[in-house]
Every structure is written in structure tokens, then in C-alpha cells.
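As promised in the previous annual report, we have extended the structural survey to additional targets. Below is the entry for S1/P1 Nuclease.
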Amino acid sequence: MFAMRCAVRSSTTRADRPCDRHQTRAIGRRRGSRAARTGRHAGRLPFASAWRIAALALSASLALPAHGWGRTGHAAIAYIADAQLSPEVRRRVMQLLATDRSGLADPKDLGDEANWADRYRDAGRRGDAYRITQPWHFVNLDRYRPDLRAACLGRVETDAAASESGESAHACIVDALIALRGELADTSAPAHRRLRALQFVVHLIGDIHQPMHTISNRDRGGNETIVVMRHGRADTLHHLWDTALVERLGDVLDTGHDARDRPANAHDWQADARAIADALLIRLERGGAAPFEAPLPDAACIARTAFDPEAWAWASFGIARTLAYRPLRASRHGARYRLGKRDELRAVEAVAQQLTCAGLRLARVLEDAFGTDDPAS
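The corresponding C-alpha cell record, generated without further manual editing, is:
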């Protein structure tokens, strides 16, 4: 049975250690190596097999041309999961990632690999990689009349052996996760297939917990809705949820990192992600909602780690409808909307919840998939 492991692991060591109240600030002030801060992962992935999906998926893919949590959020989820893994499962996960020769992510860093799927999708200049895998990153549940079957294009059958290339075919993130998780758990599958499944699963579990990846309001996933936060910053609703609120969470948790104070080329996003992950794990262990004023909107999700992407999608959709769209108020800035202080804090609470739950659920999936591997492998 999967059980949460206490030890919050620092950004500089693989060893587990007990949590303490000073850890968050200490980790937050560390700086990674220069290599960790430089832009890398240029080039194109040689993995270019023609993955087949229904033709209708192409039109659906135009609805949400955006990233999930942004690289910091995805990495934080991966670091939360990594802290929960048993040593043997962690070894097997990293052993498989070590075979990644794509050049799109650091195979020694689970947090960086959590961003591989976005880079793979975008590396081909909207070629096959984009056309085929982009619909896997979201599900468009209509804000007013949500229908999961319709959003997943009639729930196209998912079969890892359905196409000539032997790759999974599906039309939305729910079906993608079901198919890819099955392939990841198949210990008889070729290593390169399990590697690709692992890279997608690590990323897509993050995406399905990003509320804006589960709702359709006919605004391209929030990319056409402009929101003005209380301090005057204007942003798209999608970017607000995938990046700005994650940055705000770092401030609220007092990690010692403030990405907004550094130029983009100096943004040590991996250190930010580790600091956020460590702070959320400390908060989780203490069993409270501090530093927030109210309990988490859905704190029970932390106890529900069993694999259930449909339930995860519906929960994210509920957050998007009630905390992303409903609080928006017409402003004096033309087509822009305002987000008040209290609503902003509630949104940050939801981000904290979703990052934490995604990390715990990812850990459960990895434990289930790799815990049954041949011990001699």
C-alpha cells in the first residue's frame, strides 16, 4: 500500500532527512549551479514515429495552445513525488530516465524531465509531434454543459498496440493517461516505450491538475481573457494560473525566492520549484492549511491517491469554474477583468492544493508501475 514518506529532500542531496521549520528558508536561499540556470534543451527529438489518433483530435487541439503549470509548477510536482518514492522505485525511475537521449531534458533531474512533454510537442515546429500529442495535454469540458464523453471525442478506444508504430492512440488527457499508465506498468514493454510513457505520465498528471486545462469557455483556455490582479499586473487567465499564481504561492509560503525580482535569463526556476515543493511537504506534514486563512478547498484529495484521471479532471474543472471564472468582475479597463485580494488568495490556496495532490498521485502511479519490476533489473 502506498504511504506518504515524511522526509523532505533538499535540492542538493539525494538523502532523506527530517523536516524542520527552518528548512524552507534555507533551501530557498540556495542557488543551483550555473548549468542549472542556463537555457538548454535546444534541438529536435529523434523520436519521430507517427503516432495515430482520430482525425477529429486535430481540430480539438486548436482549443488550448498553452503549457500546463509552466516549468516551475511541473518541476515542483515532480519533486513532491520524488520525495515520496521508496529508494528502490526511485532508483528504477532514474535508471529508465537515464536512457533519454533526446536532449530535451536533463535525465538526472525528474523535475526537468517533467517538462519534457511540452518541449517534445513544440520542438517539431507544429509537425507530427505537435499535431498528435497536443490534444493529450487537456480536456475541454464546457463551462456550462460539461460532457466528458463529448470532450474526449466520443471516448475513442485506447489501445497501445492500435497503430502501426505500436504507440497509444487517444483524444484527450483522461484517455491519454489511462493508455500511457498502462504502458508504463507493462514490464514486458520495450524500454524506449516505457521511457516515453514515463515522460508523458510525469507531465500529464501535472496538466490534469491545472484547472485551466480542463475547461472550455470559448476563450482558448483562458488565453483570450485578460485579468488585472490587485497590484495592477495584467495577465491572461491561463498564464495567471500556470505561472503567476505559482510565483505568488512562493511568496505566500515564504520560500525566500521571488522570481519576479530577477530578469528572465537569471530565473533559477529549478531552485524555485524545489523550495515550493519542500514548503508544501512541510505544510502537508503539519496537517494544517497555514499560512492560509481557511482549509484547502478540497483537502480530502490528499487522501485519495488512487489512479482516477476522470475524477481528477472533474475536480480541476470545478476549481476552474468556481475559482478561475466565477470571481472575475468587469473592470474599467475595457475587455479586462479584475481579481480581488480575497479571490486571489483563494486561487493561490487552490494552486497549493493541486500541486500537492498531483505530486502525491504521481508518486502513487510510479510506485505502482515500478514497484512490480523485476528486483534484478
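Confidence is low (pLDDT under 50) at residues 1-65, 158-168, 257-267. The longest helix spans residues 341-370. These points will be discussed at the next consortium meeting with the crystallography subgroup.
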